[in-house]
Amino acid sequence: MRDAQLPAARSRRRRTAGLVAVATAVAGLATAFVVAAPPSRSAPGPVAEAGTSGKAGTAAHSGTSAGAGLAATPWMRRAGAPLTVIAHRGASSAAPENTLVSDEVARRGGAVWIENDVQPSKDGVPYILHDTTVDRTTDGTGPVRSLTSAQLNALDAGSWFAPAYAGTRVPTLAAQLADLRTRGGKLLLEIKGRHSHAEVARIVRDVREQGMADRVFVQSFDVPSLRYTHELAPELPLGLLRSTLDADPVALAKELDLAAYNVSDAALSTRPGIIGDLHAAGVAVNVWTVDTPARWKALSALGVDGVITNRPTELGGWSAGQTR
Asked: Does the CA dihedral 139-140-141-143 come out positive or negative?
């Protein structure tokens, strides 16, 4: 998803005194992955495992709880339950985004849900990478779709963030799914940009081959990609990403059989009442990309179900504190 906060966040990270020490420790363990995998904390939906609190819930908050007669789903939180913490591109404020080391940092910070982006190489292999080009987050250049899997595999995806992460690779979707399956965690997977039916079919194949269909939630700005996903894998829950609100989000959610409507914080602020309308239709609301306690508090009070953040450990701690 789009995130105008990243350049500033990178600038702040480079000024953080403790970065190199943390980076060295995590980069070493991410390269080797020799420590024992933490137990997988599995549950029916993202909200049931919000943050680090371990409290489960299945309906909305703040006047829209299950007691009010809603068509509650596993993706909606109960009144009083903490927000679902969704780690944006892994722990992207503490490690190079969309890498296995970023996922590991998020996991060790208590996050269950990882948000990542997928797009194909020139030869059709799905890779985890946000931008349409590799320029910003690797030592290479050019559009992702113009590079073969062999070329993408050779790129350094860590040095741009900090020297301690040198040699970190761009993971394939299959590699990321295998890592989550064995080490723990669930995936909010954004299909990045327009995908053909065949490209979506390859994503679905990787999810199924890794035995992760019950731990993957697919989202996209691209409506055709969501339609293809539902046709090919009706078992996968779907979320529609939006930077501005649709005229009738509820009608569109019903048309696309959405489990969640995932909207930018700025867009939601223009019409917060839509949360109740979507909840009444059994559709969860997750908000991106929110990194400040003041907004976490406001969104929690409004009744959103999950927050996508660059600061998953901090949000998890804050959210747990609110439920004590």
From this structure: negative
Residue 195 known to be catalytic: no
Pick the catalytic residue from 61, 130, 230, 279.
130
Model confidence at 124: pLDDT above 50: yes
Which whole number is the average pLDDT over 154-181?
Answer: 98
pLDDT at 1: 77
pLDDT score of 262? 98
Is the pLDDT confidence value at 92 over 50?
yes
Q: What distance in Å separates the CA atoms of residue 322 and residue 324, rounded to the nearest whole number?
A: 6
To the query of whether residue 88 is one of the catalytic residues in this protein, the response is: yes
**Residue tagged active-site, from 88, 195, 230, 279:** 88
In whole angstroms, what is the distance from residue 275 CA to residue 280 CA?
9
| Separation of alpha carbons 293 and 291, rounded Å | 7
Assign 186 to helix, strand or coil: strand
User: What pTM was computed for the model?
Assistant: 0.83
Instruction: Give the pLDDT of residue 3.
Output: 58
Q: How many CB atoms lie within 10 A of CB 292?
A: 14
Under CATH, domain 6-31+45-322 is a member of which superfamily?
Answer: Phosphatidylinositol (PI) phosphodiesterase (3.20.20.190)
Q: Can you give the three-state secondary structure of 188-242, one letter per residue?
A: EEEECCCCCHHHHHHHHHHHHHCCCHHHEEEEECCHHHHHHHHHHCCCCCEEEEE
What is the DSSP track for 8-21? HHHHHHHT-TTHHH
3-state secondary structure of 128: strand
Helix (H, G, I), strand (E, B) or coil at 111: coil
The values of phi and psi at residue 136, to 5°, are -70, -40
Query: And the tokens for 62?
Result: 């703040």
Domain positions in the chain: 6-31+45-322
**What is the rounded average pLDDT of the residues 250-274?**
98
* CA 267/CA 29 separation, integer angstroms: 39
Bridge partners, residue 309, by sequence: 87
